[in-house]
Amino acid sequence: MENIGICDECGSRFLKRASKMASLCPECASLLYGYDNCAHVFEDGICAKCLWDGSRSDYTEKIHKENER
Ligand SMILES: [Zn+2]
Ligand SMILES: [Zn+2]
Predict the structure, then answer these.
(1) pLDDT value at residue 53
(2) Domain coordinates of the chain in residue numbers?
(3) Which ligand is nearest to the CA of 36?
(4) Which among 42, 43, 32, 39 has a CA at the least distance from the CA of 67?
(5) Measured in angstroms, how far is the CA atom of residue 36 from the centroid of ligand 2?
């Protein structure tokens, strides 16, 4: 399906129109480049809005933890 992409960073599927970047999910685009993140709404472990499944690469996990401090 052409409107669903695979995130280059975390490997999750994502809805392309929900992300500012063609090759990154909204979560990774936000963590890596500061774009607006999706206000995720998880249903059965997958965001109903952008389809992100909660995956993180080691790198985005690290950024996420640093942001929480
Ligand atoms: Zn991602
Ligand atoms: Zn989302």
Answers:
(1) 98
(2) 4-68
(3) 2
(4) 32
(5) 11
